[in-house]
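Figure 2 data, in text form.
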Amino acid sequence: MKIVIVGAGRVGSALAEAYDAAGHQVVVLDLSTSAFDRLPAEFRGSAIRGDGTDEDTLRRAGAEDADVFLALTEGDNRNVMATQVAMEKLGIKNVVAKINDPVRAAAYAELGIATLCRTTMQADAISAYLGLGSMGLPGVIAPTGSHHGDDAHAPLAETIGAGASGREA
């Protein structure tokens, strides 16, 4: 499977390392060359300095035939823009945008973009740790709508083997 990751921060690098070790073809893009220092020396994928919101950069990186596209930078707007380009211009069906704002995460899911919201994930985890039970807040929200007339996209969990909730077991 070909996986493109925009953002070589802690999450992006950890996923790139894990997917590479599992034998997937991994392409990582980041604006900062020093971000690639997080990747292990054994990393066999591609590390490309560039803007993940730029269609030409994504095409040069070979993203147009990706099975999965993950936008994991620190910027909500940049992540949404990157996933929109991936969906609209490159035709990638399985996309996930990291969105910190829970309201925006839900809104983008309604527009057909799967979202990862660490705010709700952390709130739920803290509540569970304190013995107060799960708050029932979704960490990953599957797309519930469509984007520009496209059919709703397949949940990423079905693609890479996570449980039905979108969280790894």
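Caption note: The domain at 2-160 is CATH 3.40.50.720 (Rossmann fold).
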